[in-house]
Design brief:
The protein has 437 residues and is an alpha+beta fold. It has 15 helices and 16 strands.
Amino acid sequence: MSRLKVVRGMKDILPPEAPRWHQVEDRARAVFEGYGYQELRTPVLEHTELFRRSIGEATDIVEKEMYTFPDRKGRSLSMRPEATASCVRAAVEHGLPRGGEGLRIWYAGPMFRYEKMQKERYRQFYQLGAEIYGAGGPAADAEIILVTARLWRGLGLGNVALEVNSLGTREEQSAYREQLREYLSDHRDRLDEDSQRRLSSNPLRVLDSKNPDMQPLIEAAPLPLDALGNASTAHFQEVTGMLSECGVEFRVNRRLVRGLDYYTRTVFEWVSGDLGAQSAICGGGRYDRLFTEIGGPDTPAVGFSAGVERIIAVMDAAGIEARAEAPDLYLAAVGDAPCRRAHAVAERLRDALPDVSLVVDAGDGGFRPKLRRADRSGARLALVLGEDELAAGCIQLKALRGERQDQVPLERAADHIRDLLADPDGAPRADGTRDNG
């Protein structure tokens, strides 16, 4: 029988890799909560119509990349290709935000797109992001970008750069789209196949082409910023002014567009030179019409999403280390009776020391191999329970990063362990005395 493998485009995250993921996810959660954001979890499956309305019929995601199928009742469902539409759907369905107050939410989880395999791009990939609902002013745009900047600082990423632009309102976009379509139509013979297809459906996406043969034509194209009205220009100037005042460096990329139809006014990307042509690790912007697009009240909104795999790739390229969290204690039982009692002893210690991590040795062998495994685990203390200790109602406490070794009564072990972890050089011995050198 042939051996089964992971589905193409998917990836197992193995135990040695997990600490890096924890590092990113834990830092993101701390940053989000530090700004007052609350977590929102949405289902992986949504009605296909949600993404057609929000992302846009003519986008590559909807046209080519979604995992879409009928359920048993013939309803078209799709695995979510991104999270913003799902979050807005949840907000509309549950009447959020309430009472005229804004709402800050964050999310993290898997997304799915059937796209060409590229470096650190998988068909199941993970994103984290944050959104602000009910705030239409430039301060919300600036805050979302400041959240991302703080996340990169917290992760130690110095090799990323911020690009910003404004696409204007829907009305300004419509006028600019016609101007751009006229320009591109005059040069149709220079457009590649994808750009010719986008010319009628969404000409802004032509500006995002990575085809090197198209770049001279794109460089000479009219720009979204030139089509902005006074209000949109002022909005963008306020956003960039706040970023400058907060010390966030950025570059105005006048050709920056996002691949989703719902964006209005501010758009931005964080890019890294460590990822090749597909350099973005994070992108976002304002989407003031998305609530109404999916049947909700008129609600301004702004947010971002970031690819976890791509963040990790940049961290790896920068040589930022991630280490597995070592346990505090490693219990090694030697002998049949001590092995039978080991878990009972461990459970009592966990009850008494809820913030302390404890691993019980599950391998065979005598004292020496178990102690070697304890040392490899990175634990601070080894707890040794042998036949003699069990008969005496005691347990051995051995410092794995020092010379200290004590034998203590089992009923007082938790107190001794707590003191020893806090002060390894002056912890009490079994007789209650201290050795402070």
